[in-house]
Design brief:
357 residues, 6-stranded parallel sheet, cell membrane, Peripla_BP_I, Rossmann fold, 6-stranded mixed sheet, globular, 2 domains, alpha/beta, Mycoplasma_p48, BMP family ABC transporter substrate-binding protein, 18% strand, signal
Length: 357
């Protein structure tokens, strides 16, 4: 059931999607009585990934509004409902739920508390699959990261020396596999355009299955899966699932091989300097800006439930700079990546995903 939560009916939501979130310094006026809140997914607010980005967006908006936000971290899925209820009980005006897996709990809380505003990160909260968000007090903020992952896949196929690139995820859910599938599409396109045969391990587009850790923790399981891919001769590795990249980085360092790491959500080069030397780039989604704009609007009494869907066109997704890897990437390859980005924006090249129009 979870695998379909964000898929069914998305086309109807796309028709009403909002414009790109843009930072604004305009205060929402007297918001001293306004209380913004947030519930994290498992992994916590220091995951250097999507939970952290959401938290940064919330705190930035709260600072500008002159209010003190309330936050609660989830250690497991069983915490979601109780954490949401605790924030409702504390009088929160707007509650941000960070992560696809919180959608069922968010829908239940929103239905039971129609006067509370909810912002859902990474899910449309369409549990009855009718093409609309289930409750009128929920704003979805979602991202077509397949577009940016396509560019990362093409780039990776262009820099690999072994001819094998790999990916693995935390769980087989759409917000994870959208990265993995977009990545594989980019590799396939590189092969088509250049007559090469770069292989992707860890994800099978035909079966829509691959290598998963079963969670979003940096642990031995994640490290073992990363090692298994390294043993298949990969020299570019994309872990998708918050802090599991840390386990991948440890496996890369232990291998003694030159293997490029790809980050997701945030620019991991900036959020975690301990792995910066390994990073080729990161596949970005502007969760922080989306949360910031939603809270600023709500704090000013202008809460808008129109879904925001991040794309390359509106700047909601993209690739981070190459940073230390720039000298190792041929200039003509980056020119090709930039041309592909424009082709996707112009509609001349379609990247398949459950969020594609």
């Amino acid at each position: 059931m979870l695998s379909g939560l964000a898929i069914a009916g998305t086309a109807a939501l796309l028709a009403g999607c909002g414009s790109a979130p843009e930072s604004s310094s305009t205060s929402g006026g007297d918001a001293s009585d306004y209380l913004p809140c947030m519930v994290s997914d498992a992994g916590g607010f220091d995951d250097k990934s999507f939970n952290q980005l959401g938290y940064e967006g919330l705190t930035k908006a709260a600072d500008e509004l002159g209010v003190e936000p309330k936050t609660v971290e989830s250690a497991a899925e069983t915490d979601y409902a109780a954490n949401l209820q605790s924030l409702v009980d504390q009088g929160c005006n707007t509650i941000v739920t960070v992560g696809f897996l919180l959608a069922p709990a968010a829908a239940e809380a929103a239905a039971a508390n129609p006067d509370v505003e909810f912002v859902s990160i990474d899910d449309t909260v369409d549990l009855d699959f009718d093409g609309t968000t289930d409750e009128p007090n929920i704003k979805p903020i979602i991202f077509d990261t397949a577009q940016a992952a396509f560019l990362a896949g093409y780039l990776s196929a262009g820099v690999t020396e072994t001819g094998v690139v790999g990916t693995f995820g935390g769980m087989n859910i759409p917000t994870v596999t959208i990265f993995m599938d977009g990545f594989a599409q980019g590799v396939d396109y590189y092969n088509e355009q250049n007559g090469t045969d770069v292989k992707v391990v860890g994800w099978d587009r035909a079966t829509e299955d691959g290598s998963f850790t079963g969670g979003f923790e940096a642990n031995d399981t994640a490290r073992q899966i990363a090692q298994g891919l390294i043993d298949q001769n990969v020299d570019v590795l994309l872990p998708v699932g918050g802090p599991i990249y840390q386990s991948a980085a440890a496996a890369i360092e232990d291998s003694g091989k030159t293997i490029a790491l790809l980050g997701v959500d945030a620019d991991v080069f900036e959020t975690d300097p301990s792995v910066s030397s390994l990073l080729l780039t990161s596949i970005l989604k502007q969760i922080d800006v989306g949360v910031y704009d939603a809270i600023m609007a709500a704090g000013g009494g202008e809460f808008d439930v129109t879904p925001f869907i991040g794309t390359l066109d509106n700047g909601g997704v993209g690739l981070a700079p190459l940073h230390d890897w720039e000298a190792n990437v041929p200039a003509d390859l980056m020119t090709q990546v930039e041309e592909l980005q424009q082709a996707i924006i112009d509609g001349d090249l379609t990247v398949e995903s459950y969020l594609a129009q």
